[in-house]
TrEMBL record:
InterPro entries: AAA+_ATPase, ABC_transp_ATP-bind, ABC_transporter-like_ATP-bd, ABC_transporter-like_CS, Oligopep_ABC_C, P-loop_NTPase. PROSITE patterns: ABC_TRANSPORTER_1, ABC_TRANSPORTER_2. This is ATP-binding cassette domain-containing protein. GO terms for biological process: peptide transport; transmembrane transport. GO terms for molecular function: ATP binding; ATP hydrolysis activity. It comes from the Bacteria. SMART domains: AAA. Keywords: ATP-binding, Coiled coil, Nucleotide-binding, Transport. Pfam families: ABC_tran (PF00005), oligo_HPY (PF08352).
């Protein structure tokens, strides 16, 4: 069940996301362990069916964010929740671990809460401004850690969090979940066998034994579902024990069935790969030159057991996907080198779309193409989004493309999203000085002779970024506080988020 916010379904929720890359510096005898802080403290929701545009100067961390959401990197910290499938469907093991170790998990949460309180009191006591700023940063770090831990637990157990003793709760939740994992494995097996049956049918082979196996598995599955329902009754009964606690409802309402992508193991993530796709900038390097178009598109279909090999049904599906992406049917046996850049990008798109994904990261997907071809590919992406109910994270340094395609836009600077709002709101009523500078740097025809403002100064190093607001070294509005305190990313107007001590256009 997808999460609903402001009447819209959330597909991906990112909270306090961090992605650091280690770099070694220093001398041989005293190596200094440093990190490129490519993404820092990113919090955002991506809604089902929207195109979320991401802009910012080169190296600010756009690609890293796209790839981290897809878990192509092991994220350093934070939560990435996916609502496109149910927990039941994937039955990830991390849920079982949480249920099994509830007691320990909740103890860790209490420890973090104590530390958070200590750090807050310490911060409130300090008089010296500079020390106070440092203490505030420290307190905010621990506050985030405690919050993430709290959500990791409460989203899975809800009102049970009020309990003093978790042994009974842990036992019943673990027992039920173990059966859910078994049920999920049976469902996977049935799906695999059904594909096998289709393949055998296409070759004219007998499928009797497979059909028998499928029937057996279906019966087994029915049994498992009954056991799950029995445990559910037990869980409901157990809840009555805690229902009168004053905090029960508060915690119960925090239940959430988003899949925490960062906690999935490789095999679980592999199953979700078909949902979460990436379209690259360079169509040349992303296609295997030794495979024909048909093979390129079918590779994923077979890997994910979506279609039987050698069947007419599969061929028809491949041809219809090609047609949707503007590729003629006779291209099916051709190799990538026989196509132009735009056509190759269409092949890359067809390969992704064939998997019926839910979310696609388009990383500079049109940047390598001629301008005339760019608009064809952008329009193809828009059409596909409507037809297939897709959701895009559209990364581009080209502001006019972003404005054209995006429903909402996030502006990144040195690893942080500094502003986020509806597209027109960003372009007409930007509140962050960086957005203002970025937008005024758009090359425009300067007919009235107005000065075109270009962002001055080099981008600071993401290894040792400036303290406080990272943009303060280049910001014309910066004051003392900007160099000391990192501004909070807050909702300044409905749906308009910004992290700045001196927000622009506040009265618009
Ligand atoms: N795998 C990696 N290992 C180490 N550092 C990396 C890695 N990937 C990216 N970085 C660094 O992280 C920072 C953000 O890079 P990223 O490619 O995400 O930026 P970008 O905004 O997409 O830039 P561009 O528009 O130039 O692609 C850069 O400093 C980059 O050098």
């Amino acid at each position: 069940m997808p999460k609903i916010k402001d009447g819209k379904k959330v597909l991906i929720r990112v909270e306090n996301l961090k992605q650091y890359f280690p770099v070694k510096k220093g001398t041989f005898f005293s190596p200094e362990h440093l990190f490129v802080r490519a993404n820092e403290d990113i919090t955002l929701d991506i809604y089902e069916g929207e195109t979320f545009g991401l802009v910012g100067e080169s190296g600010c961390g756009k690609s890293t964010l796209g790839r981290t959401l897809l878990q192509l990197y092991d994220q350093t910290d934070g939560r990435t929740l996916y609502y496109g499938r149910s927990i039941e469907d994937i039955a990830p093991k991390y849920v079982l671990e949480t249920y099994k170790n509830l007691d320990r998990e909740v103890k860790e949460l209490h420890q973090l809460r104590r530390k958070e309180n200590e750090d807050r009191e310490n911060y409130e006591k300090l008089a010296d401004e500079s020390e106070k700023y440092k203490a505030l940063e420290k307190y905010r770090e621990i506050e985030k850690k405690a919050r993430n831990k709290y959500l990791d637990i409460v989203e899975l157990i809800g009102g049970f969090l009020v309990a003093d003793d978790f042994s009974e709760i842990s036992k019943v939740l673990t027992s039920q979940y173990e059966v859910k994992i078994q049920a999920k494995e049976i469902r996977d097996k049935i799906r695999e066998l059904m594909i096998k049956v289709e393949e055998k049918k296409a070759k004219g082979k007998s499928t009797d034994s497979d059909n028998e196996n499928i029937d057996k598995l279906r019966k087994e599955l029915e049994n498992k579902d009954k056991i799950i329902a029995d445990y559910e009754t037990e869980i409901i009964n157990l809840k009555t024990k805690y229902k009168d606690h004053p905090d029960f409802e508060k915690y119960e309402s925090k239940r959430d069935d988003g899949i925490n992508l960062a906690k999935l193991d490789e095999e679980e993530m592999r199953k979700l790969r078909k949902d979460l796709q990436l379209i690259f900038q360079d169509p040349y390097s992303s296609l295997n030159p030794r495979l024909t178009v048909g093979q390129i598109i079918s590779e994923g279909l077979f890997a994910h057991n979506m279609f039987p090999k050698n069947s007419e049904q599969t061929q028809e599906y491949i041809l219809s996907t090609m047609e949707k992406c503007g590729l003629a049917p006779y291209f099916v046996h051709r190799y990538p080198h026989q196509f132009s850049g735009g056509q190759r990008q269409r092949i890359g798109i067809a390969r992704s779309v064939a998997l019926s994904p839910k979310f696609i990261v388009c990383d500079e997907a049109v940047s390598a193409l001629d301008v005339s071809i760019q608009s064809q590919i952008i329009n193809l992406l828009i059409d596909l989004k409507e037809q297939e109910n897709l959701t895009y994270l559209f990364i581009s340094h080209d502001l006019s493309v972003i404005r054209y395609i995006s429903d909402r836009v996030g502006v990144m600077y040195l690893g942080n999203i500094v502003e986020l709002a509806d597209t027109e709101e960003i372009f007409e009523n930007m509140m962050h000085p960086y957005t203002e500078a970025l937008l005024s740097a758009i090359p425009t025809t300067d007919a009235e002779g107005t000065k075109i403002e270009v962002l001055e100064g080099d981008i600071p190093s993401p290894i040792k970024p400036p303290t406080g607001c990272k943009f303060h070294t280049r910001c014309k509005y910066a004051t003392e506080i900007c160099s000391q305190v990192q501004p909070q990313f807050e909702e300044a107007r409905p749906g308009h988020f910004v992290a700045c001590h001196h927000k622009l256009n506040q009265n618009n």
